[in-house]
Amino acid sequence: MDVYGLIGNPVGHSLSPPMHEAGYEALGIDAKYVTFEPAADGGAAAVEAADRLGVAGLNVTIPFKQDVLDAVSPDPLAERIGAVNTIDFGDGTPTGYNTDAVGAVRALEHHGVDLSGTAVVVGAGGAGRAVAFGLADEGMSVRVANRTESKARDLAGEVPDASGHGLAGLAELLADADVLVNCTSVGMDEDETPVPAEALHGELAVLDAVYSPLSTRLLRDAAEVGATTIDGAWMLLYQGVEAFELWTGEDAPVNPMNDALRAGL
Ligand code: ATR
Question: Ligand 1 pocket, 123 CB below 6 A?
Answer without folding.
Answer: yes
